[in-house]
Design a protein that fits this description.
mainly alpha
């Protein structure tokens, strides 16, 4: 069998999750992003940055809720299969939600830490 390569890669079916099933997660993420945008606009109108930095705490909290929901879905998926090779890989839509959740939490944390500086630079 010299020269013959053996592949042990397991190809798994990909789970199919519609956007309708992910609507609660989408709405939670949009609410978090809107809290940042609306507070920035509110602070800009008032000429101070009181709410901008604080509103990001809401966004980070909401992204944490979506992350918890996603982990819960993954755990339930693994618990429903006795053979790990049969577990379908994460759907494209769920991976998109997971990436957006991570992005919102990272961006939110940065704005939370540096919101006053960001606000001052954007309004120059």
């Amino acid at each position: 069998m010299a020269g013959k390569e053996t592949s042990f890669a397991v190809t798994r079916a990909q789970a199919k999750v519609s956007w309708g099933d992910l609507l609660p997660d989408v709405l939670i993420l949009v609410s978090g992003a809107l809290s940042i945008v609306l507070s920035f606009m509110f602070d800009e109108c008032l000429g101070h940055h009181e709410f901008f930095g604080k509103s990001v705490a809401i966004a980070v909290l909401l992204s944490g809720i979506v992350a918890f929901r996603s982990l819960n879905k993954h755990y339930r998926k693994f618990l429903n299969y006795s053979n790990l090779a049969d577990v379908p890989s994460t759907s494209k839509n769920q991976r998109t939600i997971d990436r957006l959740t991570l992005s919102l939490s990272i961006a939110g944390t940065l704005v939370w830490a540096y919101g006053d500086i960001i606000f001052a630079k954007l309004l120059k």
